[in-house]
Amino acid sequence: MEKNYDHKQEEKIISAWEKSGVFAAPTKDDAKAAGKKPFTIIMPPPNANDPLHVGHAMFVTIEDILIRYHRMMGDAALWLPGTDHAGIETQFVFEKKLAKQGKSRYDFDRKTLYQMIADYVDENSGVAINQMKRLGASADWTRFKFTLDKDIVDQVTDTFIKLYKDGLVYKGVRLVNYCTRCGTGYSELEVEHEEREDKLYFINYGPLTVATTRPETMLGDVAVAVNPKDKRFKSLLGQEVDLPLSDRKIKIIADEMVDMEFGTGAVKVTPSHDSADWEIAERQGWDVMKMAKEFQVIGQNGKMTETAGKYAGLSIVLAREAIVTDLKNKLTETKPLTHSVGICYRCHRVIEPLPMSQFFIKVRGMADKAIEAIDKGEIKVHGVGRDKILRQWLVNLKDWNISRQIVWGIRLPVWNKGEEFKVSKTSPGEEWTQETDTFDTWFSSGQWPVITLKTNKPGDFEYFYPTGVMETAYDILPFWVMRMLMLGIYMTGKVPFKEVYFHGLVRDEQGRKMSKSIGNVVNPMVLVEKYGADALRMALVMSTTPGNDSNVGESKVRGMRNLANKIWNAARYVKEGSTWEESRVRATIPGETFAGPPSEEIFASDEEFRKKLDLVTEDVTRQLEDLKIGLAAETVYNEFWHWYCDAAIETNKKGDIGSAALKDGLAVFLKLLHPFVPFVTEAVWKEVFPNEGLLAASSWPKMK
């Protein structure tokens, strides 16, 4: 063996794994014939167009640990990989590229723009796959799927048609969270919120003063609301007031949702631009859809509409400034205010609630069945408190707006003729035109466990569904996990996975969220190149617990590189023969050689050594079965470093543990360590056990 371990050989090891076909899961018939039980992980599909970030490295590591372990246990282990077209995220990135060329999406027709984005994705689609392989991902690449594969698109479309036939799809004008920069609506779940410094404006409406953060929408007011318990305004209920800067009169109404302590206790009601006001209008029994269209003062282009009169065409910011100026003495006061603002999760522009005609899915029934499955224990959630959060989302879930005003995605199978629409894969006639909206990306990825298996090898769905573990970051619990649970049960009658493992966010060494602006972003591939994939993997999972964030930086990765060196050095000692004091003494005698005792000789401490080895194996096995991955990593690390290397090898040097036992112990530890640090263990296995085939294809250590 070379004196030092060189992590640069990891590329050759990847090649050996791929040539062997060891990662390919058996077919249904072969697995059943061999008496294997299925263990399935469906990979969370990363963006096909983007390189991996450290969060991706975390999921690759955790899932690879589990799949390697179950493969060695003799299970029919399937890790099904795939990538996501990522809808708005990919189109957003592509539009930034166009902007650098002085162009925009509006310069191209739909078909051309779609093909341009498709070509762009094709050019970069291999990056994420190659990087996952470089991290050691032992996925079954023969079963790889992409969310825009034709068979996937057909399955997604069929699900929507089924939902429609079951009466769970409707089209209606609703207030939609709209990003005027990205040009699309979002569901409630996709809107991020952040604290921002703003102003609270106090505007005189005659007999009362209202407080608002949005004077620019006042021209869309339809009423002023007060709490019915507020004695200050009891005599004003039902009266009309003049709407400032307009020739309209609006009524003072009562609604229990008005906070008497906020501002003046009187609020303007603008259903076209505020979801709470929309609900007020519904409770009043008004024709909200008609009202919303009539009094919409902000358009999808982010500018004031003709309804805004003299302010038409102005941006929201400029309109606010002009209206504040024109209010003159009607504006009685302004105060600083810190409040939560909804922003676009892609471009971070403030979200505008706008009335739009969209397609919605009724989710209440699906959500209730998901809750029932949780209550019955059909699904187990790993991550402190995450099960309660999942349940809370399901309890409060509203109908799902799945229409997206972008071209990059799966087009809705909807055909329009005037106000009529039909749902069909093919056109119902020449006079019908296809809907231009695409599905919310989460609608296709929400079906991922079902459709990836149904469109793969014969028998995959029947044998591998429901899957074993769904592993992902906790921050996409409502976006993805919840929707997979609902749609999986709806489509199959069964939960899509038996367990959910939520890993935490990866923060920098100081516990700060990684951010380009701070400059603390960790590039996993740079660290892999510098220290090896094993070092990064161990640094990511060591001592972690599900659902909790962890801190990782270069110093931690550098420290974990020492483990690879420790494994290599221990293997050199075992392979090259013992270096007992007695051996060194005898070797100094002329003509005397000493290669150590016969391998079958049993030493006084061998039995104790093997018992301890069994205990370590039992601990690591139990921890992996219980999905205590961080603890399992810590256990095998400490036992190998401190017991095997620092204690057992030193005992061997003194002649109290035989070389045969020590070599057997190395074999056991290489297997226990392999799921965590697959590269160095595979390299050592080849050196010490050259006739035993690949370590990745070996069996897990047996316990007595």
Task: Kindly describe this structure.
The chain is an alpha/beta fold and 704 residues long. Helices cover 41% and strands 17% of the residues. It is built from 23 helices and 25 strands. The chain has a 4-stranded antiparallel sheet. A 4-stranded mixed sheet has the order 10-11-9-12, covered by helices on one side. A 3-stranded antiparallel sheet has the order 8-7-13, with no helix packed on it.
Helix content: 40-55%
The total tally of domains equals: 4
Q: What is the CATH topology of the largest domain?
A: Rossmann fold
Provide the spatial order of strands within the biggest beta sheet. 6-5-14-16
Q: What integer is the average pLDDT? A: 92
Radius of gyration: 31 Å
Superfamily (CATH H level) name of the largest domain:
HUPs
Q: What would you call the shape? A: elongated
| Sequence stretches where pLDDT stays below 50 over 5 or more residues | 578-589, 594-600
The CATH C-level class name of the largest domain: Alpha Beta
Q: Count the DSSP helices.
A: 23
Q: Main β-sheet, in a few words?
A: 4 strands, antiparallel
Say how many strands there are: 25
Span of the ends, CA to CA: 32 Å
**Helix-and-strand structural type:** alpha/beta
The CATH architecture term of the largest domain is 3-Layer(aba) Sandwich
Fold topology:
Layout: H1 10-20, H2 28-33, E1 38-42, H3 54-72, E2 76-80, E3 82-83, H4 87-100, H5 110-134, E4 145-146, H6 150-165, E5 169-179, E6 184-186, E7 192-204, E8 209-212, E9 223-226, E10 240-242, E11 249-254, E12 266-269, H7 275-283, H8 288-294, H9 316-327, E13 331-343, E14 352-361, H10 364-375, E15 380-382, H11 386-396, E16 400-401, E17 403-404, E18 414-417, E19 420-423, E20 433-434, E21 438-439, H12 441-445, H13 448-454, H14 460-464, E22 467-473, H15 477-492, E23 497-503, E24 506-507, H16 524-531, H17 533-541, E25 550-551, H18 554-575, H19 581-586, H20 606-625, H21 629-653, H22 659-673, H23 678-688
Parallel strand pairs: 1-2, 3-4, 9-11, 15-23, 22-23, 24-25
Antiparallel strand pairs: 5-6, 5-14, 7-8, 7-13, 9-12, 10-11, 14-16, 17-21, 18-19, 18-20
Helix pairs in contact: 3-17, 10-11, 10-15, 16-17, 17-18, 18-21, 18-22, 18-23, 20-21, 20-22, 21-22, 22-23
